[in-house]
Amino acid sequence: MGLVIIAISVFLILFVFYMLNNAFQDNVKEETLEFYIFPNNIREFTIFFISDIHRRKINSSIIDQVKGKADAVIIGGDLTEKGVPYSRVSKNLKMLKDVAPVFFVWGNNDYEVNNNQLSRTLKNCQVIELKNEVYYIEKNEQKLAFIGVDDLTQELPPLEDILKQEGRNVFRILISHNPDIIHMLPEEHGISLILSGHTHGGQIRVFGFGPYRKGGIRNIKGLTLLVSNGYGTTALPLRLGADAETHLITIKNGKGYQA
To the nearest whole percent, how much of the chain has pLDDT over 90? Predict the structure, then answer.
């Protein structure tokens, strides 16, 4: 009986270390998305997308993998949470800023900290904060629209009003921490791609089942939705069946993404 208890204890310890290792991986998933309406003149545009950093310190290996490859960095919310020192947040932002211009949308856990202080930290690190507004990226004399939406826990203005801020002949990328934004879009939204996180892919999935669907790319009524498993964790620094991930997304003109 004693040997059985020892064996079970060793197995449980190793299993916890396995989940801990999964939580602190530095994966960069390279994705290529093609759209018929993507501007020919731009040819391609590459985004480094990272969401749900929470308490993690960004590893320099991540930066090494994407530096020189991305045109923009997008943080998809939950950059931080209660108890994370601002020195860590600043260091993470400065590392990302070394890759390309950085854009940020708010997540639910970002509202656990002092909003004004976080906004000042973003400004000091030259990060562009998108809160219910549109930012235009110009390349080869054509434009892309980054449409940043506040977290769904906050009171949002009508999405129609936000979408009216940009012209109709612009390729539109909507950035929302919570993927449920897809159910709130007006019928005539003109969005081609949504980037989001929030779910952590379920974080701990037992026999393939978790509280949320595993992250991935889906095509929903002609709209491409990318939901990231995220880089950090919430509550416990453990993952099972939903490894930590970031994304290097190349968008180009082509036949169109099919999920």
Answer: 76
